[in-house]
Design a protein that fits this description.
There is one protein chain. With about 450 residues, the protein is of the alpha/beta class. The protein has 14 helices and 15 strands. The chain has a 4-stranded parallel beta sheet, with helices on both faces. β11 and β12 form a beta hairpin. α2 crosses α3, α8 crosses α9 and α10 runs parallel beside α12. The longest helix is centred in the last third of the chain and has 23 residues. It starts with a strand and ends with a strand. It binds adenosine monophosphate (AMP) and zinc ion.
């Protein structure tokens, strides 16, 4: 299996260091619903994990839940995102964090992502973070400012290693520096609570009451749970510039070791060429998409159809196309099933299985793998049972439930409207009947009038 490694800036052969792949993914900051940009990243994580499993690896997967310490600005200024959200929504910070963590997990389920074995929360590792910062302090990597304890990045020789040669313009946030920082790249390990106010989430420490910085939680939880070095560490492409160099720097300081052997990043989902981000006001959630009648797996299909390292411009036209393609795939596959009789799998089919393994193992080439799926379905040199064998095999990686035939549950409200419309039709009140048809359409369903009466189906947009 080959993967692009941000540490070496090239595609490299991947091998696990031990029997189980030690896989750590930066998780969500649970201050609001995740948006579909975040979800592109989480589907990529799932694709990577499924590919490892497909290639015969055992995987131990950890994804953190950031429930404290992620500040509004990456330059260690501004408030904690969860505290701001709690104030706006008049809830406690704890309520906010638990609520959105739960909502996040619901989205993962809908997108058919295999759950990590562990979802550690930052607030449950406070002691470990304090112990870790104490070591950094003892080794001389820290300094104190008025608002917190900081890490001196100039002490790490190759701090910028993940950046590579193609150094982009650094996030503007960095300009807005905390006064007293020795280097623009220095970051907070521990932030003090304000002197005049009590924070809802705060803990005592040798340096004063406060809370840990976001970059410290990930290095502490990943090293504590999985051990250093990890095999794979993932994040969205924004993490190449701040979060991941900071995690890596702390591991180098504390353990004199690389934190991870592979660093893999997913490119952004964009809207009109701009990163989809809450701060840009251009986000959509999974709920928004579902309300418009799209299936979450249509979104998954859309994501898989672009290589994870390429930016993906979101549009409803593209999502509609994905939904149509996915539904028509499933329709065709369901017909295959009816005629199935199991026999020996031919050499030709086994060759295709091998080809699939190779394609997906080439730095996760999911678009080409999907193209192969379509080819299999159309191939006239394969028997139906062989097609089913291959499709079910490929779907271990795609996670699109290609062979699942679930009867669409039509909501009661829609069924009642269908009845009402039928009554109007029988009374020849066609204008009223048409109005109801429109209403049903708006709810995402379509009526087809057949000889046997009206049939209602979910609308494909
Ligand atoms: P956050 O909750 O902000 O910590 O983000 C969770 C994950 O989503 C991080 O790994 C981000 O890099 C990633 N992410 C954020 N926005 C996008 C986007 N528009 N496209 C892809 N990934 C994103
Ligand atoms: Zn992280």
């Amino acid at each position: 299996m080959y993967l692009y490694n941000q540490l070496t800036h090239r595609i490299q052969k991947f091998r696990a260091s031990k029997k189980e792949v030690k896989f750590y993914s930066c998780g969500p900051t649970v201050y609001d619903y995740v948006h579909i940009g975040n979800l592109r990243y989480f589907v990529f994580v799932d694709l990577l994990k499924r590919t490892l499993l497909y290639h015969g690896y055992k995987v131990y997967h950890v994804m953190n839940i950031t429930d404290v310490g992620h500040l509004v600005s990456d330059a260690d200024t501004g408030e904690d995102k969860i505290v701001v959200s709690a104030r706006k929504k008049r809830k406690s910070a704890w309520e906010i964090a638990r609520f959105y963590e739960n909502e996040f997990k619901k989205d993962l389920k809908k997108l058919n992502c295999i759950f990590p074995q562990k979802f550690p929360r930052a607030t449950e590792y406070i002691k470990d973070q304090i112990e870790f910062i104490k070591i950094l302090e003892k080794k001389g990597f820290t300094y104190r400012l008025e608002d917190g304890i900081y890490f001196d990045t100039s002490k790490i020789k190759d701090y910028k290693r993940l950046w590579g040669k193609e150094i982009k313009i650094l996030p503007g946030a960095r300009v807005e520096m905390v006064p007293g920082k020795k280097n623009p790249t220095d970051f907070a390990l521990w932030k003090f609570s304000p002197k005049d106010k009590k924070r809802e989430m705060e803990w005592p420490s040798p340096w004063g009451k406060g809370f840990p910085g976001w970059h410290t939680e990930c290095v502490v939880m990943s090293s504590k749970i999985l051990g250093v070095p990890l095999d794979i560490h993932t994040g969205g492409e924004d993490h190449i510039w701040i979060h991941h160099p900071n995690e890596r720097a702390q591991a180098l300081a504390c353990f004199s070791k690389e934190l991870s052997r592979f660093w893999v990043h997913c490119a952004f989902l964009r809207q009109k060429k701009q990163k989809m981000a809450k701060s840009k006001g251009n986000i959509l959630t999974l709920k928004d998409i579902e309300k418009k009648g799209y299936h979450p797996l249509a979104l998954r299909y859309l994501f898989l159809n672009t290589h994870y390292q390429k930016p993906l411009d979101f549009s409803f036209t593209a999502l509609s196309f994905s939904q149509k393609t996915l539904f028509s795939l499933k329709e065709k596959i369901s017909h295959l099933k009816e005629k199935t009789k199991r026999k020996k799998i031919s050499k030709k089919a086994l060759m295709i299985k091998k080809e699939f393994k190779k394609i997906i193992g080439q730095n996760l080439n999911s678009p080409q793998a999907l193209a192969l799926l379509h080819k299999v379905l159309e191939a006239n040199f394969l028997e139906n049972y062989e097609k089913i064998f291959l499709i079910s095999d490929f779907d271990k990686v795609f996670g699109l439930n290609l062979l699942e035939k679930k009867e669409e549950k039509i909501p009661k409200k829609v069924l009642e409207l269908v009845k009402k419309r039928e009554k109007y039709r029988q009374e020849k009140k066609f204008e009223e009947a048409d109005k109801i048809r429109e209403k049903i359409k708006k709810m995402g369903y379509e009526i087809q009038d057949t000889k046997e009466g009206p049939v209602v189906k979910k609308r494909i947009l």
